[in-house]
Amino acid sequence: MKRKMDIENQLKRAIDKNQFSLVYQPKVNFQTNKMIGMEALLRWEHPEYGWVSPAEFIPIAEETGQIEAIGKWVLETACKQNKVWQQQGLGPLSVSVNVSVLQFQNGKFLKTVKTVLEESKLDAQFLELEITESIMQNIKESRDILTQFKKLGVKISIDDFGTGYSSLHILSKLPIDTIKIDKSFIDELDQLDRSPIIKAIIDLSLNLNLSIVAEGIETVNQLEFLQANGCMIGQGYLFSKPVKANEFEQLIRTNDVR
Ligand code: C2E
Ligand code: CA
Ligand code: CA
Ligand code: CA
User: Fold this and answer.
1) What DSSP assignment string belongs to 143-180?
2) Where, if anywhere, are coiled coils annotated (predicted)?
């Protein structure tokens, strides 16, 4: 209880106190072995508790409405950073930003994305928004919102696919670009036999003309299974953990992504 209250209180000042940072994890094309983009992940260094996981503080930020300001900070930081790399001749890479469904359903978010793209001068095609499956709960509303983002030119990815509310029918009705197979399926691949589910998700996405990304790849076994079944893009500790911007820049340079 105390921890939750502290987090809630201190979250308010975390932006002003420069306690947030982003780390980046490469998205790799297995066929070419090159990086095609990166996911931006939020980090918070709390004065008392040290590094607090976004899995803990994002839900609190959603409850208190602070997600709006935090989400804007993440978007700005990620877009500006990607533009800086492009200006240095690195890439061009696509940056993926996690957006909570609450943030997405807030009418102001479209304007925020527009403004951030204008101010950072990042071309919209190099920004991808990752949203979880729960966006599918209200299909009519979601389709309208998603369509507006598509008009802006940004890409839309359905994160953690297979874990929540999902229906093939709905999937085909929404203007999305990518499905991300949830890490839990990849995790279990080596112990339980999750291959039928993963194969089904890959086939589904190929049939719907969506690109397919796997997350949480840690072993060569997992990588080889995905490759053999037609999933050619993924991320995970096998390639790299999420790292700070300066380290990521080294990764881009040594990987020769151009
Ligand atoms: P997610 O979007 O599903 O992100 C994937 C999580 O898996 C990240 O945890 C990442 O560090 C971790 N990961 C990546 N590859 C591997 C791997 O090979 N093995 C293992 N064990 N883990 C791996 P992280 O950074 O702690 O983020 C947790 C969740 O917090 C994210 O899940 C996302 O839902 C949320 N989150 C992170 N940043 C933001 C943000 O800026 N905004 C919002 N709304 N949510 C965020
Ligand atoms: Ca994600
Ligand atoms: Ca995910
Ligand atoms: Ca997740």
Assistant:
1) HHHHHHHHHHT-EEEEEEETSSS--HHHHHHS---EEE
2) none
Tell me whether the omega of the peptide bond preceding residue 92 falls within 30 degrees of 0, making it cis: yes
From CA 91, how far away is CA 48, in angstroms rounded?
A: 38
The helix or strand, by DSSP H or E, that contains position 94, with its residue range, turns out to be strand 94-98
Residue 256 pLDDT? 52
Q: pTM score > 0.90 for this model?
A: yes
Of ligand 1's listed atoms, the one at least distance from the Cα of 215 is 15
**Given the structure tokens 């700070």, which residue do they identify?**
244
Domains plus CATH for the chain?
1-253 (3.20.20.450)
Average pLDDT in the 133-155 region? 90
Q: 100 C-alpha to center of ligand 3: Å?
A: 12
Nearest CA to ligand 1 atom 12: 216
